[in-house]
TrEMBL record:
Cited InterPro entries: Sulf_transp_TsuA/YedE (IPR007272)
UniProt-recorded name of the protein: Uncharacterized protein
Superkingdom: Bacteria
A Pfam cross-reference name: Sulf_transp
Gene Ontology cellular component annotations, sorted alphabetically: plasma membrane
Membrane-crossing segments per the record: 28-47, 53-74, 95-115, 127-154, 161-180, 200-224, 245-265, 320-339, 346-366, 386-406
Annotated segments matching region Disordered: 1-21
Family note: Belongs to the TsuA/YedE (TC 9.B.102) family.
Length: 418
């Protein structure tokens, strides 16, 4: 194994995991502790918040468990494709999106909801703000070591450097919230475009077009692989039978389906798809407000957002989902015997600071992250989701030249992926 291969194993995963020939023993004390924390938080939400929040905590826990269990990445998927042409993970994205649009279409068309509220997808404008924000996010996730969901589940898995990424993700998102009116009000943009409602196709026609696009993208990745012959992703340690539900890795495509179903359940529970980064702006804004900054005067916190700033963070559905994702990833890592704080390197720390700032700021400008804009936007039949994906890939390509400056590896054609 070459030095490059070893470095790739240390830096190309989200979060980093050791290659093993067999599963580790479950970390029972950590599992018990995680379940107790989850039970306390659930009881607290049941007595202080609406039933929606309690259900969202459970959904978030399942999301986090799924993400970690399958090591389902967005950052690594983009990097593998842009560096060596490996499209395995991106094809899993297409499966996830295909299942999601199939579930989202009737929910959005008929307004299905568990609690009788309004249901709406993520459909946002296409303009300068989106272009700049998604491009920044693409660079940020390659330097920071993870996307929005990846940062949360890496924190839950104990990857130390991701705590730094998360901290500066919050800082960047808060600064982005402060600057957002300039990007959205003073710079040009098209009105939000829905493939379903803005084109006359309806949800049925938009579904057919979406499936065709996912198929086309998958075909392109296969053609690229045939030409470049990239290394394949080896299977992660796992087990057989029903035990695989709780321990060992899941196939990417199984996780893709699970994530799509859970996103649809989120839509039916809170009336909006899964999101991550709006909570970061809320957390950061509450902190600076505590120190005397007049956050309520910011344009971002006017109108519908004002109530979130005035309420407890546990009343914010995205916050509850985020806590659930972290806890779910923690339980998954402990069940696999994998939870362990990792060592910090100066290059990684600096990259995480810069990457986190770009992630947070870019997410605010782009109306979301890999979850809210890419996953949620495309699932909602929004054109901005596709544009986000293209610009994030462009940012990833640029980041491939920046990663070595911080001692981070870039996969090579002869490397073996971990």
């Amino acid at each position: 194994m070459t030095t490059t291969t070893v470095q790739a194993q240390a830096n190309t995963k989200e979060p980093v995991q050791k290659q093993q020939s067999a599963l580790n023993k479950p970390q029972t004390p950590l599992i018990i502790g995680g379940l107790l924390v989850g039970a306390v938080l659930l009881i607290y939400l049941m007595f202080t918040q609406s039933a929606v929040q309690s259900l969202l905590l459970v959904i978030g826990l399942l999301l986090g468990y799924t993400l970690f269990h399958a090591r389902f990445g967005f950052t690594s998927a983009f990097r593998r494709l842009m560096s060596v042409g490996n499209g395995q993970a991106l094809r899993a994205h297409m499966v996830m999106l295909a299942v999601a649009v199939t579930l989202f279409a009737p929910i959005l068309a008929f307004g299905y909801s568990f609690f009788g509220g309004e249901v709406s997808g993520y459909v946002s404008p296409v303009g300068v703000s989106l272009f700049v924000g998604a491009f920044m996010f693409g660079i940020g996730m390659q330097l920071g070591g993870g996307c929005a969901s990846g940062t949360l589940y890496a924190v839950g898995g104990g990857r130390s450097v991701m705590f730094i990424t998360l901290l500066f993700f919050i800082v960047g998102s808060t600064i982005g919230a402060y600057h957002l009116p300039f990007w959205t009000e003073d710079l040009p943009a098209f009105e939000p475009i829905s493939l379903a409602t803005s084109t006359g196709l309806g949800y049925g026609g938009a579904w057919i077009l979406s499936i065709a696009l996912f198929g086309l993208i998958s075909w392109i990745t296969l053609r690229v692989e045939k030409k470049k012959q990239p290394p394949k992703m080896p299977p992660l340690p796992s087990t057989k039978g029903w035990k695989r539900i709780f321990r060992g890795s899941w196939p990417l495509f199984a996780a893709a389906i699970a994530l799509a179903v859970l996103n649809a359940l989120t839509l039916m529970t809170r009336g909006a798809p899964w999101g991550v980064t709006s909570a970061f702006a809320l957390w950061g804004s509450k902190v600076v407000q505590f120190f005397g900054v007049d956050v309520a005067s910011w344009g971002y916190w006017q109108g519908a957002n004002a109530s979130a700033l005035e309420s407890s963070i546990f009343a914010d559905s995205t916050t509850v989902l985020n806590f659930g994702v972290i806890l779910g990833a923690f339980l998954a890592s402990a069940a696999g015997g994998l939870f362990k704080f990792t060592k910090l390197r100066l290059g990684n720390v600096v990259a995480s600071i810069i990457g986190g700032l770009l992630l947070g700021y870019g997410a605010r400008l782009a109306f979301g992250c890999n979850i809210g804009a890419y996953f949620g936007g495309i699932s909602s039949f929004s054109l901005h989701g596709y544009v986000w994906g293209i610009l994030a890939l462009a940012g990833t390509f640029v980041a491939l030249f920046l990663r070595p400056l911080f001692g981070l590896s870039v996969p090579k054609p002869k490397d073996t992926f971990c």
